[in-house]
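About this split. The held-out portion is used to measure sequence recovery: a designer receives only the structure tokens and must propose an amino acid at every position. Recovery is the fraction of positions where the proposal matches the reference. Here is one held-out target exactly as it appears in the evaluation file.
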């Protein structure tokens, strides 16, 4: 819901940083991989109950995730880079709830499983529409230059990171936060299915 506004606000700063990294010889794929490794370190820290360290690493990983696109736009975007970026993003989003499940299996395993199941809905609806939008040559005018058509909803990247941050700050409330966010993800999935059904109807 907030991704477009946040990305448009940050695009000039990220653009300058991306151009600077290109001048230093840093490639977009390297930034993507650095963000993923940092994100996995965040999940590991959370699993070890080092929640403040996990939060810092989590935010750093998302900063790098924003920078990789800026680096790509400042050089030459590739389909391979777009594939790597979205794949590793989804692995990161799955790893964080898993980390909380490891941190306290008795309290967190079920809400983590519910949250991961809700992520299947948001992720599959996002990727299925993106694939068919590409087939139909549909353009995302709100976020041009992306590798995929970004289908919106209540729970996009910004909201997900905010939920993860809240979990790290108040780990004792992981269950209620996870259940609440899973409910929002379910609404997002339903909205995407309805919107996609209408947008992709025969003849549209």
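Reference sequence for scoring:
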């Amino acid at each position: 819901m907030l991704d477009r506004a946040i990305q448009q606000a940050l695009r000039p700063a990220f653009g300058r940083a991306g151009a600077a990294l290109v001048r230093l010889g840093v490639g977009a794929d390297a930034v993507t991989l650095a963000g993923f490794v940092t994100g996995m370190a965040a999940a590991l820290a959370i699993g070890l109950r080092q929640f403040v360290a996990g939060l810092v690493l989590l935010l750093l990983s998302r900063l790098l995730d924003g920078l990789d696109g800026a680096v790509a736009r400042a050089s030459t975007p590739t389909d391979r880079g777009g594939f790597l970026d979205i794949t590793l993003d989804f692995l990161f989003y799955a790893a964080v709830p898993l980390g909380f499940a490891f941190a306290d299996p008795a309290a967190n395993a079920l809400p983590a499983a519910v949250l991961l199941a809700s992520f299947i809905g948001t992720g599959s609806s996002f990727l299925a529409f993106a694939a068919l939008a590409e087939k139909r040559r549909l353009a995302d005018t709100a976020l041009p230059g992306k590798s995929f058509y970004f289908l919106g909803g209540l729970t996009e990247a910004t909201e997900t990171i905010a939920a993860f941050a809240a979990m790290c700050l108040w780990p004792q409330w992981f269950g209620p936060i996870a259940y609440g966010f899973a409910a929002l993800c379910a609404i997002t999935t339903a909205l995407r299915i309805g919107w996609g059904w209408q947008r992709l109807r025969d003849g549209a």
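Annotator remark: The mean pLDDT is 89.
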